[in-house]
Amino acid sequence: MTKRIFRSICFVAVIVFLASVILFMGVLYEHFSNVEQAQLKMQTNLAAQGVTNEGIEFFRDLKVADYRISWIDANGNVLYDSKSDIAEMENHLEREEVKEAIAKGYGESRRYSSTLMEHSFYCAQKLADGTVLRLSISQHSIFVLLLGMSQPVCVIFAIALILSIVLAVRVSKKIVKPLNEIDLDNPLKNEGYDELSPFLRRIDSQQRQLLRQQDEILQKENELDTIVSSMNEGMVLLNPKGKVISINPAAGKLLSAKADCIGMDMLSLCRKLDLQEILSNALQGEQGERIISFNEETYQVDANPIVSENTVKGAALFFFNVTEKENAEQIRREFTANVSHELKTPLHSISGYAELLKNDMVKENDRIPFAGKIYAEAQRMIRLVEDVISLSHLDEGAADMKCEETDLYELAQNAVQSLETEADAACISLEISGIPAVVNGIPRLLYSIIYNLCDNAIKYNSEHGKVIVSVENEKNTVVLSVQDTGIGIAPEHQERIFERFYRVDKSHSKEVGGTGLGLSIVKHAAKIHNAKLEVKSSVGKGTTVIVTFPAHKKWS
Amino acid sequence: MRLKFDEQLDLLNKELIKMGAFCESAIAMSAKALTEGNPALAKGVPDLSVQIDNKEREIENMCIKLLLHQQPVAKDLRVVSSALKMVTDMARIGDQSADIAEIVTLANINSANDTQIIHDMSVAVIKMVTDSIDAFVKKDIQMAKAVIDYDDVVDSFFDKIKNILIDFFSKPETDGEYAIDLLMIAKYFERIGDHAVNIAKWVLFSITGNKEGK
Predict the structure, then answer these.
(1) Given B13, B25, B133, which is nearest A273 (Cβ)?
(2) What are the pLDDT digits (tens) for A309-350?
(3) How far is CA A75 from CA A9, A50, A88, A95, A104, in A?
(4) A118, A168, A218, A340: most buried by Cβ count inside 10 Å?
(5) pLDDT band with cut points at 50, 70 and 90 for residue B110
C-alpha cells in the first residue's frame, strides 16, 4: 500500500517538475534570445555609425566584452576582428548575414556550433562606403543552461522524493487505519468507509450462518455422544488399521481401557483370538459375530465393517451382554430335559404293569394292587402335567386371572385343613396362628403358595415334627410364614431350591414324592403378587419360609 | 524413512501381542483340559503350538530385517533385540503347553484328588503369562516387576506338589504313571512360569535398558 502510494506520488511530482522545467526553459529562452537579438541590432547600428564617423580609429578604444566585431570590406576581406587575427581569416563574402547586408543593407543570421554547443547571433550592416560591419554574440544552448542547473535540480528532486515518501507513509497509514481497526467479530458496529459496508454486511450474515451451523453440529454431536455413552452395549470404532477411534464408557469398562486408549491398537486392549479373528474379517469387509466370555460374563460381539464407496473405512465392534439370555436358555434346555425325564419315569411303570396285565401274568389277588399302582403313577403324571401347565401359565404372567381382595388367613386355614390327613399320616402336628389379613391378589395362586409351602414343610420334616403357619398383619405388609422343624437346607442349596426340578437330595426324591416344581410355582406366584420371598434355614433344625406381601390399600 | 521405521516397529509390536495371545490361549486350553479332565479340549493345542512356531519365525525374520535395513540405535535397538529374545520364550511356552496337552490326552490324570492344587497352579501360571504380556502391551515397569516376584508363588506350588507326590510314593499301592505325569505337568507349569519371568525381564530391558529394571 505504502509502496504504491509512494510510487504514484513520486511519479506525479517528477512529471510536474519536468513539465514545468521544460515549459519555463522554453519560454524564457525564447524571450531572452529575442531581447538579445534586438540589442545586438541596436549595437550594430551604433557601431556602424561609429565606424562611419571615425573609420578604423573607432575600434582602437573600443571595449567590447561579449561582442565580437568584424569589419569586412565589400570583397569579403576582413579588415578588423576583435577576437581573431585578421590575417588568418578567410573571405567572409559567403556568410549569410554578410550576403544579406550587401544586398539589402542589413542582415542577420543565427548559427549553431555543435562543437561548442553554442548559438551565435550575427548582425551585419552595410556602411555607406560599402563595407560591412558585423557584430556577433554567442549564447549558450539550452542544454548547457540546463546542465548548469543540474545541481539545484537534483536537490529539488531529492526533496520531492523525501516529501513523497513521508506523504505516502502518512497517507497510507491514514487510509489503512480504519481498515485495520475493523472489528470482524462485530462487523456491523464499525464506522469505517461507507464503501466497505456491503462487505461487512456479508461478513456479518456469513458469521451468523457459521455460528448457527456450528451450534447445530455441536448439538447433534452432543446427542450422539449422550446416546453412545449412556448405552449399555459396548461400542468401539476402529480405523482401517485396527486402531481405536472411539470407545464408549461401557466398552471401556468391559475392556478395562483407560482414557488414553484412543489411537492404540485393538490388540493392546483385548488379545482374545476370537475377537481378533472377527475383527480382521470385518476389516476385510466381512460381517461377523461371536459369543465371547469376559470375566465370567458372556458377551455377543458383533464386528461390522464400515464400507463407503466400496472400500472399508473401518470397523465397528458392538458388545452385547447375553449372560442372562444364555442362562435363561440353559435353564429352558434343562427344564425340557427334566420334564421329559420326569414324565418318562411314571410312564415306564404304567407301561410295565399294563404289559403284565395284558399278558395275563398277574395273579388274581395282585390285580387290584397293580391297578392301584397304575392309578398312582397316572395321578403322579397328572400332578406333574398340571404343575407344568400352571408354571407355564405363570411364565406368561397369569394375565387372565383377576386380582381381588382376599383374606390370606382364610386361605391358610383351607390349605391346612386339606393337608391334615397327610400330616397325620406323617405324625406331624400342623398348627395355624394369626389374624385375618386382607391382600389384593389371585386366590388360586395365593392358595397354591400356602399349599406348596406347607406340603414341603410336611414332606421334609422329621418324625413327630411341627409345622406352624402364621399370618401377621404388619404396618404396610402382610407376612405369611411357614415354619417347620425339619431337616433344613444347607446354605449352598438355599439359592437354588426355587429352580425347576432342583432337589437337594436327588436320591430320595421318589420316596418323598412331589414333582420338584412346587417351590418354583411359589416363586413365580410370589413374583406376580410383588411379594418378597425369604428363606431362613439351618441344617437339622428346620426351615422358615417368609413371604412378605404388600398390604391391600383399603378404600379410605 | 523414520515414518516407515515407525510403521515397522508398530507391526512388530502387533505381531508380538498376537503371538502372546496365542500363548495365552494355548496354556489356557491345556489347563482347562487338565482341570476338567476332558482330553478333547486339548486337541487344538498342538495346532496352536505350530502357529506359535510359525509366528516365531516370522517375528525373527522381521527383527533381522529391521536390524539390517534400519540399523536402529538406543531404544529402538533395545526394542528389536528384546523382541528377538522374547519370541524364543513365547515359543517355549507354546511348546510346553503342547506337552501338557499331550500328557492330558494320555488320560492318566483323572483322579480328582490332586486336581485342585494343579488347578490353582495353572491359574497362577496363566496369570503370570497374561501379566507379562500385559506388561509388554502397556509398557508397564511395575507390572513386569510384579510378574518376576510372582514366580515365587508358582515355585512354592511346585514344591507342594512335589511333597504330595513324595507322600504318594510312600504308600504301598501307587499308580506310578499318574504320579510321574502329575510331576511332569507341574514341572512344565513351573518352566512356563520361568519363561514368563524372562519375558517380563525383556520388557524391563526394552523400557529401561536394564534387565532388572533399575
Answers:
(1) B25
(2) 888 888 888 888 888 888 888 888 888 888 888 788 888 888
(3) 64, 21, 16, 12, 16
(4) A168
(5) low
CA atoms lying within 13 Å on the CB side of residue A487: 14
Of A265, A272, A273, the CB nearest to B14: A265
For residue A106, what are the β-bridge partners? Answer: A125
B43 contact A CB<8A: no
For chain A, what are the domain ranges? 2-148, 231-321, 326-390, 401-550
**B18 in contact with A, Cβ within 8 Å:** yes
Q: How many residues does chain B have?
A: 214
Q: In this model, does residue A188 exceed pLDDT 80?
A: no
- At a CB cut-off of 8 Å and minimum separation 6, what does B191 contact? B92, B96
List the grid coordinates of B149: 516376584
The CA distance from B203 to B141, in Å, is: 8
Cβ atoms of residues A450 and A415 within 8 Å: yes
Domain B2-208 classified CATH 1.20.58.220? yes
Per-position DSSP letters for B105-136, written without gaps between them: HTT----GGGHHHHHHHHHHHHHHHHHHHHHH
Nearest CA in chain A to B19: A271
Q: B22 CB near a chain A CB, below 8 Å?
A: yes
Question: What is each CA distance from B112 to A276, B31, B117, B167, B172, in whole angstroms?
Answer: 35, 14, 10, 17, 20
CATH architecture of A231-321: 2-Layer Sandwich (3.30)
Please spell the DSSP secondary structure of A437-488, one letter per residue.
Answer: -EEEE-HHHHHHHHHHHHHHHHHT--TT-EEEEEEEE-SSEEEEEEEE-S--
Q: Which amino acid is at A501?
A: F
pLDDT tens by residue, A376-429: 888 888 888 888 888 887 777 666 677 788 888 888 888 888 888 888 888 888
For residue A130, CA distances in Å to A428, B59, B142 come to 190, 130, 136
Residue environment code for A228-260, b if the CB has 16+ CB neighbours within 10 A, otherwise e:
beeeebbbbbbbeebbbeebbebbbebbebeee
| A446: Cβ contacts below 8 Å, ≥ 6 apart | A406, A408, A411, A439, A525, A529
| Architecture of the domain spanning A2-148 | 2-Layer Sandwich (3.30)
Choice between A59 and A22, residue whose per-residue pLDDT is larger: A22
Residue A397 has phi, psi (to 5 degrees) of 100, 10
The per-residue pLDDT for range A9-58, each reduced to its tens digit, is: 888 888 888 898 888 888 888 888 888 888 888 888 888 888 888 777 77
Give counts: helices (H), strands (E), chain A. Answer: 16, 17
Chain B interface test: which of A244, A255, A264, A267 (most B C-beta within 10 Å) = A267
Per-residue pLDDT band for A556 (boundaries 50, 70, 90) equals: very low
Give me the pLDDT at residue A220, please.
Answer: 94
pLDDT at position A134 is 84
**Contact A265/B24, CB-based, under 8 Å?**
no
| Residue spans of beta strands (DSSP E) within A227-357 | 234-238, 244-247, 288-294, 297-308, 311-321
| Residues in chain B within 8 Å Cβ distance of A268 | 17, 137-138
What is the grid cell recorded at A186?
462485530
Q: How far is CA A311 from CA A235, A263, A283, B185, in A?
A: 21, 21, 10, 49
Could you tell me the pTM of the whole model?
0.56
- The answer to whether the Cβ–Cβ distance between B17 and A267 falls below 8 Å is yes
Question: Is the confidence at residue A306, as pLDDT, over 90?
Answer: no
- B54 compared with A462, residue with greater pLDDT: B54
- Give the residue extent of every domain in chain B: 2-208
Nearest CA in chain A to B20: A271
pLDDT at A555: 44
Q: Between the CA of residue A226 and those of A97, A251, A289, B28, B42, what are the distances in Å?
A: 114, 15, 26, 38, 45
Instruction: Kindly report the CATH class assigned to A326-390.
Output: mainly alpha
